[in-house]
Amino acid sequence: MTGTGNAAAGDALAQERLRRWRMVLCGEEDGTGRALTGRDAAMDAALSALYGRDGGNGRSGRGPKGGERSAGLGGSAPHVARWLGDIRTYFPGSVVQIMQRDAIERLGLASLLLEPEMLEAVEPDVHLVGTLLSLHKAMPETTRETARAVVRTVVERLEARLASRTRATLTGALDRSARTSRPRRADIDWNRTIRANLKNYLPEHRTVVPERLVGYGRAAQAVRKEVVLCVDQSGSMAASVVHASVFGAVLASMRTIATRLVVFDTAVVDLTDQLTDPVDVLFGTQLGGGTDINRALAYCQSKITRPADTVVVLISDLYEGGIRDEMLGRVAAMKASGIEFVALLALSDEGAPAYDREHAAALAALGVPAFACTPDLFPEVMAAALEKRPLPIP
Hints:
single chain, alpha/beta, six-stranded mixed β-sheet, two-stranded antiparallel sheet
């Protein structure tokens, strides 16, 4: 029985390998001798519509009937909506998001997103939000509310994933930076005080002698730090803009941090008064255009009143269209005044971004390492900056 079972398992594995090769090779005359049927044929058709011979730079191959595989989405909104429904049926969400992104980029379907029926069919994700933000000025009134609903879905997912951890991490960092060894009686943190003085326990008196008191000053609930998020809104930074808006709203909800959000291209827009709703923030951005980092930093610098208690986070790929030397000189001056300066090449899950390596090296020479940061790492980076300790560079 054992030999029979092993043989059956081996045959099943071989058949699965053959099936996968058949899906990759895309045709009956591919040497596998296996035809696609049922769900496999439907999956192949969905892939053919996007990655076929006529699908831009996609792969070519043999279709389910042995003919050339070719793209079949065309420009019909109902057809595309059906295709979107099909891929959500046959593929996991992470794959659906990639296929949607490829369809928009490869087949020029962005204009179809201006139709409410299309928006209702898509799988919301960060990249889709970026596309919608780049189109929102051209959206008809009938589409705007649907677009806002899609954006809000993504924002709420990000907040659920990131908000609690961010608040907990930064609260801990602020508490450590505000701790004092000479607190007033009402401000003594008894738990930490006891832990700090356990070595002074007197068994005969069954008590701890507190040689060192630990607590917080009366300003515990006042603003302790100021954070300025200075975000490049050029087209390549779309995912970073989305994440920065969510983090800006989370930081603004903390009473002990005064948060300012500034977005820029060749112009500068202060969106601080919209931070209560990151969806409003996102629709206040204008993705695309050039880049003038120096002008944006000049604006941020003019708003800083407590340099020693301020963290400036520049989120940009550093392709400066303004005055390079003046930008670097401004960063150096901000550092010299006591500002903690952080340069993020991207705030996204996308991995290593394209960026200006010469400008990144120049910032590093000023003591400002420039690196890409995932949303999950961002709370740790901010905590280190608030405590003025080395950043956890990945």
